[in-house]
Design a protein that fits this description.
By secondary structure, the protein is an alpha+beta fold. The chain has one domain: Deoxyribonuclease I, Chain A. Helix content is 24%, strand content 25%. Helix 3 runs parallel beside helix 4. Belongs to the DNA repair enzymes AP/ExoA family.
Length: 260
Amino acid sequence: MKIATYNVNGINGRLPVLLRWLKESAPDIVCLQELKAPQEKFPETAISEAGYQAIWHGQKSWNGVAILSRIGAPEEINKVLPGDDDDTQSRFIEANVSGIRVVCLYLPNGNPAPGPKFDYKLGWFERLKIHARELLKLDGPVVITGDYNVMPTDLDVYKPERWLDDALFRPEVRQHFKELIEQGWTDAIRKLQPGEKIYTFWDYFRNAYARDAGLRIDHFLLNPVLEKRLLAAGVDRDVRGWEKTSDHAPVWIEIGDQER
């Protein structure tokens, strides 16, 4: 089974890119972020014609997340990260898909830091850690994936010295990610490729993609049950070079039917 995550940076504007990638890569489950579309503007027909059933949580102009599946309809569990009834941003959706608990998230950027946006990011991370701890109590396989807007280590960022004050790399944010991992989650990419330079995002400016001046901010966290089934993981880097594409590339894992 192949599970992928992709920050599409506007699903309707990038729909040809998304559909081409779905056809070429054929993931079984897909988590999307930054739909940038209200609920009623999600391209359900085009996604269905591509062979996928979908649930989504849209928001006009900003945010928005979705879970797509070609192996059975996603059964929605929640579309709000628990812990703050006043949070109206569409950044979270959780479902059961073919026996796997799938959490798709778009964690806040947090810039400028310090400031209210950074405080919101830290608070969101705290709530995520609380919910993740509850998810670890489940008996079955669980994956938490999406755009975390954090580079966990120096290896995950081009020229880390330039990012020290950025909300994606500040020590408070990296500490939150570290504490999340230490609950018992496995960073799938680093599990299989612990020392390699791997990026998932390249800015549109300053020719970043051509210079490979990137960041690794899109992550797969697996619970112990799913980690034992992990076979492969990677980034479809070439998609970032397509015309009118997102500034992110799709990231994917392959899992087996049984433990290794």
